[in-house]
Amino acid sequence: MRRKSIGLIIGLMLFALLGVIAMQYYFIHQSYNLKAQLFDEAVNAALNTVVLKAEKKEAIDFIEAQEAKNIRNKQLREKQQREIEEEWQTKAVVERMRRRQRQMEAEYRELESELKRQFPSATLIPNWFYETYMRDPKLKRLVKVSLKQSASGIYQNNSMEIYAERSVTNPKKAKDDSVRYVILDDYANEFAVVVLPPPRDRQLDEQIKRYEEQEKIRQATQFFDSYMSNAQQPATSVIENLANDFELAKQPLKKRINPSYIEAELKEELLHRKINLPFNMVITEGSDDSVLFQMASFNGNFDLKNSYATLLFPNSMIKSSGKLAINFPSRTSLLLGSMGVMLGSSAALLLVLIGCFTYTIFIILRQKKISEMKTDFINNMTHEFKTPVATIMIASESLKDPEIITDAKRVDKLASIIYDENVRLGNHIERVLNIAKIDKGDLKLDKQELNLNDLVAAVVDSMDLQLKKRDAQVDMQIEAANPILYGDEFHLSNVIFNLIDNAIKYSKDIPEITIRTKNVGNHLHIIVADKGIGMSRDQLSKIFDQFYRVSTGNLHDVKGFGLGLSYVHDIIKRMKGTVKVKSEKNKGTEFELILPTIKN
């Protein structure tokens, strides 16, 4: 393909790509404008709904206030009647509680008198003393009782004193309200604890106190309500009520609006229309738009020009010049976010088109380069085939000369030349056919157990004439202790042959070649190194491509098709191995083949 044709194709593809990008931008822009229009309509509808709700709420509140005035006296009378009934009920309940308390006190006094009659020396002890010392086995031994006797006429009075020899740091609290006495058993000469029920019920005391406090509050409230009821003016007429209503409607806008209600209703209406964005709100009054209230979700001044506004109380009998305005600092983000699927799919489509465009250009340029390399390959192959064919033709014509036929040595030499050139021609053909089989996937390896050391030595021996022709110095380092591997003898021999052949070709003067085998773990390493012209980093990345040949400058003495290293790479890969290359310009190249061994 000519360069002009490639340029024309690239230009057309670029024009088509720019056209697609322009169309995508147009549709996205139109879609954005449509969504912005729908957004504006939804916001304006929400504003109108909110101001109508605020106006309706004001009317409802006004009506409810009037109704509240009419039923307030009725509720007050009903409340007073209920309070009177509750007062009598409360008094009855309190009286029952007090009788219960007096009964408990009487029962306690009777039990206490009986105890004192039977045990005159009975002594009262605090409940905390009982819980701390007398219920604890360890502390009970600290409790001591001392008896005191005194004569009173012909009678002898006995009394006891209960105390602890040592005080404790954390005395226990009383668990109940029972009354406890310590008595002395005269027969057993021991003291014991007698428990009497509490003289009063603490809960009943608390309830009585609570009822008394409620009664005081009720009486105070009743007095205040009565005072306010007496202070009210007589009922006005219907006309007077209407006049009062109009007076209320004339009150300032600041008293008529409820910013919290408007804000809450705005959020609800916007959410109902699927607008969940923070917004700034401002309420203004008058022709100069003086601000009455402002609510900002974002810092910064409120921009009235880029906001949505509507009149407050539009249907009011007394017109109001108040305005409600809101704006959305993140409006653009919401609109673009709602177009996320479209933007994402458009971006993905453009990336695919750009990728296809780039890949197509790469393929065209690559095919052009391959076409040039194939043309070079065909020319080189023709030259390579032409040389042995011409040599064979010249030798064949020489054999027709009667003088040469009579000379057996010359005939034998010409026959050897024909044979060698024929073998050379056959090797060229076989190399091309192998590459063709690899490309088609028809190449089948005949794998068997091989001795790599023997195989390398055999290949070097077969190249003895070629090495001697260049006076090559070969350093053989056969160090592999386990040289047995599983592979194809023919193709592996060709691989080693190609590497040694390249080492000979790309050496300037006398080739210095090092061939080494070694074991590393479960792998065999074959190293072929030379001290030739070497390669740059860019050349190293291309040496395994078909038809690629390392440039030798203006010299064309290095022959070949550019298929050898591609063949090496494919064969080693099929044998589950890898190829490593190290090279430095003008210092030489080292190829390292790594193949798996057969485990012993």
TrEMBL record:
It is an enzyme of class 2 (transferase). Residues 380-599 form the Histidine kinase domain. Keywords: Kinase, Membrane, Phosphoprotein, Transferase, Transmembrane, Transmembrane helix, Two-component regulatory system. It comes from the Bacteria. PROSITE patterns: HIS_KIN. It catalyses: ATP + protein L-histidine = ADP + protein N-phospho-L-histidine. SMART domains: HATPase_c, HisKA. The keyword tRNA-binding does not apply. Gene3D superfamilies: 1.10.287.130, Histidine kinase-like ATPase, C-terminal domain. The keyword Transferase applies. One of its GO terms (molecular function) is kinase activity. Its EC number is 2.7.13.3. The chain crosses the membrane at residues 334-365. This is histidine kinase. It comes from Olivibacter oleidegradans.
